[in-house]
Specification:
The protein is built from seven helices and 13 strands. The chain is an alpha+beta fold. It has a five-stranded mixed barrel with strand order 1-2-3-6-5. Strands 12-10-11-13 form a four-stranded mixed beta sheet, with no helix packed on it. It has a two-stranded antiparallel sheet with strand order 4-7. Helix 4 packs parallel to helix 6. It is elongated and about 140 Å long.
């Protein structure tokens, strides 16, 4: 009886082993190699559109200047309206001041019948003019920067919050004595809303004080905190920290000559 039970147990265990081996052969492996030869899954229509169609850059509109009113002031056609603009950050001489005709001719040559891009800086100024930076349609320096660099106008620091490129352009113009900086009529930037020049010294008085008979008692020099003496018209005159004095003590500026102003050509 015991032998028969043992034989039955062995038969059952052997049958179970054979069943496990057969089932294990039929189970697929856990990791199958990817079939690279088959067709790839196409991307969705939305992804295909975004990949195949590049983003189109937005072109900025350009406008044609058809009338120049005064230096830096011009009209453009915007739809059915004529809009008057003023160039941002640059001041020009008045009609009765030296350099007005040259500034007007410069504005006409740069803007009249040309296409420009306009970046509005202020909706309206005190004269009800739109204030904008004028850029050539084909790229390049702005109109205001060219005017300052050529000496046809000067930088309005209060209007631009001392915009760096304009300040550097004015320093170069002063060093080269270009445009308004080579005339005996001195100009100063006005902080008013009219954004027009104000004379410091009339031309005759400037010539008298340039070579006074008894020294430089009537001419005010600018002595910087570093001890450099700058004459009126210098790029560093009244710039930074310093004092105004008619009896300067220190080193003469190499650009303007200080107490011995250099002669302009």
């Amino acid at each position: 009886m015991r032998s028969f039970a043992r034989w039955l147990v062995l038969v059952v265990l052997g049958f179970g082993f054979l069943v496990q081996v057969g089932v294990g052969q039929e189970v697929p492996p856990l990791f199958e190699a990817e079939d690279l030869s088959g067709p790839s899954v196409p991307p969705s229509s939305a992804n295909a559109t975004s990949i195949s169609t590049p983003a189109t850059p937005i072109s900025k509109p350009t406008y044609e200047v058809f009338r120049v009113i005064s230096p830096g002031v011009f009209d453009v056609q915007v739809g059915d309206f004529q809009v008057r603009f003023r160039a941002w950050g640059v001041g020009f001489p008045r009609r009765e001041q030296p350099g007005y005709r040259e500034a007007l001719r410069f504005t006409e040559e740069q803007l009249l019948s040309s296409r420009v891009r306009l970046e509005v800086k202020r909706a309206f100024d005190a004269d009800n003019l739109k204030l904008a930076e004028v850029l050539p349609a084909g790229g390049g320096l702005s109109f205001s920067r060219q005017a300052i660099l050529s000496g046809r106008g000067w930088h309005l620091e209060n209007e631009t919050q001392r915009y760096g490129p304009f300040s550097l352009a004015q320093m170069k113009a002063k060093r080269m004595s270009a445009g308004v900086w080579k005339t005996p009529f001195a100009y100063e930037q006005m902080g008013g809303k009219t954004a027009m020049p104000r004379p410091l010294l009339p031309s005759k008085l400037f010539e008298q004080e340039k070579k006074p008979p008894n020294g430089f008692s009537r001419l005010s020099f600018w002595v910087s905190s570093l001890g450099k003496v700058h004459a009126p018209g210098c790029a560093f005159y009244r710039k930074g920290r310093g004092t105004l004095t008619s009896s300067p003590q220190g080193y003469d500026c190499r650009i303007c000559g200080g107490r011995n102003p250099k002669k302009t050509p």
